[in-house]
Amino acid sequence: MTLIIGALLFSLYRQLVIEQQYQVAQHLASEKLRYQQLALTVSRRNFAAQIRAADPKTALIAWRNSVDMVGALSLIPDNMPLLPQTRDFPILTGGPDKLHILTGGIVLTRYGPVLIATRTDHLATLIDKFINAAATAVMLTILLTLALGYLFSKAILRRLVHYRRLSEQIAKGHYDTRLPESWRQDEFDMVACQFNQVLDTLETNLTAVRGVTDNIAHDLRTPLSHLRIGLEQLPQKSAAECADASAALIEELDQCLATFDAMLSLTRIEEGQQALELQPLSLRGLCEDLAEMAEAVAELKQQTLTLTTGKDFEVQGDKHLLFQALYNLVDNAIKYSGEGARIEIIQEGRRVEIRDNGPGIPDDAREKVFERLVRLDPSRHQQGTGLGLSMVKAILARHNTKILLSDNHPGLVISLTFQ
What we know:
Layout: H1 2-41, H2 44-52, E1 60-64, E2 69-71, E3 87-92, E4 99-109, E5 112-119, H3 121-171, H4 187-233, H5 239-270, E6 278-282, H6 283-300, E7 304-309, E8 314-318, H7 319-336, E9 342-348, E10 351-356, H8 388-398, E11 402-407, E12 412-417
Helix pairs in contact: 1-3, 4-5, 5-8, 6-7, 7-8
């Protein structure tokens, strides 16, 4: 603010000085032309009379005739330049302002040199007043800017201190703490909003980690307990019983290892660490392969699996991962819809639906089923890792495909929309 106002005032000062110099130069030039023409048209006596009659408010004239000085000035200073060159010189008067500053120069006429000058000390006074006013304005601006800057910085510092205290609370583990947002919606509020969103995501992730930890403990405690009890009982068994028990223990251990392998694979897919082998795929062909493989599994549970296809749609994707995701969805429908259920695979353009008439999924659990190691209570008796739908969602997300669960009255409808 101070620099800008100072620059503006300096610019005005320069314009004022230049304009004054221009006005003085124009005035002296016009007087020079006037007296040169006057000397050419009148006699020496009339020329002297004209100089005596000149108005001193217009110009101060001095001309030396053969006898004495004629005009408003009593002398011609030495080393005065020829107009348009000028020089400042002082004169003493009998008025209240005894010292005047004049600006003038010499004009060569037919009757000799004539000094033409004009008073400029009042112009210098005007410039001095302007400088004093400008200096006062700059000082007031500096004081006002410092005062406002101090108040503004105190307000900013107060908010920063408050943010720092809240950050310390978050660092201590109080993840439900949020930065306040004001009605101003300024830069601090934008930062606070973004930071609060990060905290929301962090709190959600921490909750998910706690949930995963609880689910791991819940799902793996039983098989690990079985393993421990089985290992303790092995020395007491016969050779034949020991072989059967070992096979059962190995199966339980394989199930635990499968859970951890699935979690690692899911993490690689979600974090983009697993590269996709993209290729053009026919969505109709993918559904036909899916129905052919799942049909035999459905027949074992006396279920009916039907396929309805429409207009084909080509997608760019990893054939192995996409088929795995679709098969997991159909396998879940077969596994949980019960014996004698009807399962439909419907493909129309970019849209694929998997329908069943089983018990379905409650509305409040349709988002929860996509979380890691989450299995609804009715499915606890079924063997599995609890990562199937999490894997499905991760694979579809890598392929920019939307998945939606809805009610089939009764049963479940899984809708997939490919891009």
